[in-house]
Design brief:
Blueprint: E1 2-10, E2 15-23, E3 35-39, H1 48-52, H2 55-62, E4 65-69, H3 85-100, E5 110-115, H4 117-128, E6 135-139, H5 157-161, E7 182-186, H6 191-199, E8 204-208, H7 214-226
Parallel strand pairs: 3-4, 3-5, 5-6, 6-7, 7-8
Antiparallel strand pairs: 1-2, 2-4
Length: 230
Amino acid sequence: MNWIQVQTAAEGPHTLVGIDVFLPGTPEPGKRYPLVILLHGRNADHTEWMRKVRLERYAEEAGVALALVQGNQNFFVNSVWGYNWGDFVAKEVPAKLAGWFPISSEPEDITVMGVDMGGYGAMMAAQHFPEAIGKAVAVDPILDVAKLYDSGMEPRPEYIFGPREELEAKGFRFSKEGRVPVVLLVGPDGEREARDFAAQRPYVRLVRLKDRDQEERMEEAFQMLMGGAF
């Protein structure tokens, strides 16, 4: 595949953001490719998916463009302090890439996929921007950010989400209703919580992955997505 490294001024979070873009090796004239936006987890950066998953092998075969987005520790949401990473992921990235490369900006052609923190961000994109994306895929996502408030996490959760008691009012908890399909993929450790979560949300499809480590689950989930399993 063609690998392009981009540094762009992001209006939402008010900073420069790095994006690694992968395009099919020999683009077809006039074709605009579906886009998968990949979001990393905590204590990682935008290279996480590249380092842990054989992205190019599967994406080349599927004829899909990829965008690996640098997000620091922001959970890819519009924070209470006005750093709008959610806007950047769901709106700015597809629009900019469609302007620069042969990539589709049609919502049905855009999937946001993430792991851990990025899985939460992908599901938040589906919840808050249903007009902008067609699908969200989350591997081992954080399903309740309220649990982070006693974890010692840095930056402090309140710097992103505000007071714990206002999480639902500010839209940082997941709704029982949704307009965008979400695929939730977990291993055995997170299966019980994920099953309870999905049972209350008909727009969520739960997939239990094999009993392996998270890196292997990321590979399996991406391979399934590229193979059209969901």
